[in-house]
Amino acid sequence: MWLALGLVAALILSPLAYAVLRPPRPRGRGEADMALFHAQLAELEAQRAEGRLDEAAFKSATVEVQRRLLAAPAPESLNAPGRPSLLLLAALALVPVAGVVLYVERGFPDMPSATLAVRQEADAQDEAMITQLRARLATADPNTQLGRQGFILLGNAERNRGRLAEAVAAWEKALGGGFDVGLAGDVAEIEIELNRPENALRWITRGLALQPQDPRLRFLGGLAEARAGRDTTARAIWTQLLADAPADAPWRNIVEERLRGLN
């Protein structure tokens, strides 16, 4: 059994060993993010083709991936990597040994997975905390720092639970206590998901008044116009966005794809 575990550990660590012993060309965070997000978009396309995602879910997931790609930093140039250190090689060898030792000392191989009742209880506890937060914020002043942060937290929780309209309501209260371009973009995204493009444009316009070159808001502006059926306006927005963007902008392909999808 222990020999099998050791072989499995070695197999799992073999890609890491290869990366350490023969390091590839270094990649910056922006380049890695771009590769990841393009892979996620390809996976969404495959799931839609297989019938595992309907059109509404596909569009919602695609917008979320594109939002993160727009927020990703531009690729940067890095120096070539040096040789792996002896300490790193020693750590690579000691990881499986330490894992086996800890497993023998503290592991519980016979422990069953959480039951449905346990998961439902945890879900109910989360819901109770959100309800408590909602009750505390009923009389909170969004113009105070504590109140504003509370409404942002509530909006995050509501969005994670899939209650988009409630998330928008909470974030709008937070924006009433102090306008933030990033948060306005989050609200605009959800309004587009809820098929309320005019509401989204209201927040996009306010954000662009402060940061007229923000690529995320400009992209969302074109998306809202397209959802409203104004393809000509959307085309003009995205065309200008591409004209102003650097040649290596990681989100260029997304905008070009959206342009091709217009009527």
What is the compact description of this entry?
The chain has 263 residues and is mainly alpha-helical. The chain has helices spanning 2-21, 29-49, 55-71, 86-106, 116-136, 145-160, 164-176, 181-193, 197-210, 215-227, 231-244, 252-260.
Outline the fold blueprint:
Blueprint: H1 2-21, H2 29-49, H3 55-71, H4 86-106, H5 116-136, H6 145-160, H7 164-176, H8 181-193, H9 197-210, H10 215-227, H11 231-244, H12 252-260
Helix pairs in contact: 1-4, 2-3, 6-7, 7-8, 8-9, 8-10, 9-10, 10-11, 11-12
What does this entry look like structurally?
The structure is a single chain. The chain has helices at 2-21, 29-49, 55-71, 86-106, 116-136, 145-160, 164-176, 181-193, 197-210, 215-227, 231-244, 252-260. With 263 residues, it is an all-alpha fold. Among the domains are: 116-177, Serine Threonine Protein Phosphatase 5, Tetratricopeptide repeat (Alpha Horseshoe); 179-263, Tetratricopeptide repeat domain (Serine Threonine Protein Phosphatase 5, Tetratricopeptide repeat). Helix 11 packs antiparallel against helix 12. The mean pLDDT is 82. This is C-type cytochrome biogenesis protein CcmI. InterPro entries: Cyt_c_biogenesis_CcmI, TPR-like_helical_dom_sf. It comes from Sediminicoccus rosea. The chain crosses the membrane at residues 85-104.
